[in-house]
Every structure is written in C-alpha cells, then in structure tokens.
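Sample entry (130 residues):
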Amino acid sequence: MAMLIASAAKSSVTIEGEPVEGVQSIDFSVKRRQADIEAIGSGERIGVESGQVVVNGSIRISSMNKLLDDRLYALTPESFNMVITLVKGAEQIRQITFNECYLDDKSFEMSANGVGLTVYNFTSTTVLEE
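Predicted structure, serialized as tokens:
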C-alpha cells in the first residue's frame, strides 16, 4: 500500500463551504466505546460489544475566526460541517468530512514576538474519510 503523505501548505479546511484562513494545525481522534464479552469459565474474552463513536478535535488558527467565534458565543448552539481536503502535489488524496460539529471551547495566546493563536476544540457526530 502506498503512503499518503499530504502537504500541509497545499491542503485546505472549509467550514460550511467557506475557506478557513490561517490554519496552523488540526487534529482529531475517533474512539469507539466498547465492552469485552467474557467467556464463562475462562480468562479470555469471546468478543466485544461496541457502542457510540466519539469524535473530538482541535483546530489551531492564526489570530481568530469570526465564523467559529459566532458559533461558540451563540445563545443556541448551531452545528456546522467542516471539510479537510488533503493534497499531495497537485492531487487530492483524501477528503475528511466532519458532520454536525459543535464547539466546546476556545483558548487564545499571543507572545511578544509572534502572532495570536486561537485553539478551537470541537466534537463531531460523524467523520467520513474518503
């Protein structure tokens, strides 16, 4: 199987179809809750029972993002969709779609010799990698 090495400089992030400027990094984790099914009379398991899939992520943006700030501070939280398009050379190698995202929180930092950096933490109902 060939390695899929994406270029951060050429890849992009959109929220509700709008390009997100100043993305420094993005990371996410997908975890499936599961419980072991134990065998009777043995110290081994005979399978697993799976449950909810939980998606958590963070996006780090130079300065701030008005769309995300508006969603975070809204009186009634609204979900949004986010798409990451990974590119290698001139070729799109993968698209990752996060559906029904909600913002949990944000943090902001700025150093004397740098620019502002905002970290937005989000959850997603589903993630689809194509």
